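hey so u asked for the seq, here:
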Amino acid sequence: MRALATLVAAVIGLGVANFAFADDNDGDDAPRARPSAYPENLVKADGSRIRSGCLPGIMELAGKVVDAAPTKYGWIGKLILATHFLDRPSYSFEVGYGERVTYKFNFTRSCNLHDAGYEAQYYGRVDGGLTPSPLVYDQVFNQYVDYTNMSRDAIDQRFLADMRQECVTQLQAQLASETDQYRLGQLKRGAKEALSACQGNGRESNWPTWGAASLYEITQKYGDAFYRR
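ran it, structure tokens below
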């Protein structure tokens, strides 16, 4: 993971210190992931799934998120913002000569992991039955996490670190997948701003966007109702 971050940093002119890392055990020595420990496969004692994406209880939170959104976009714009742009933000930048590039990100994996952390107890399906699973597999940092005795604040901090790392890896993937050299040059020119928006609070534009810090702040402020401890 550190090698990947170094590559992205070199491309967009940032230092590795700008990125959050849980640890460095994601190379050849990384643990073998058990699918039953993936957040999306964990269930509650009644067999219902834990994961719900980035806005659990979205109808309960939507009003609060709307109130927190910039007023200039109007009520309808803020509601759409609250229910759509939080977990899959995209950012568009002008890169010269009237041309624009767009960067798309997805925080769903980080959100599913955070959902598991907020549960008091969760189970994995093993051999047709439910088995208590204290370890949850973090697919962002490629490591197991034990949320058993973790405080709500620590869970939220990990959520922020996961999202910010998603910004790094997904930006790198977008750059790596571009085969047109002219288009790649355009993407590189806007990459530093895109990473800053993704890891921070989005950017002001003709349409509102949010970032990892935005989701973290909302979770800190309104997430207590979903913390099952």
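The first helix runs from residue 2 to 12. The CA atoms of residues 42 and 124 lie 5 Å apart.
lmk if thats what u needed
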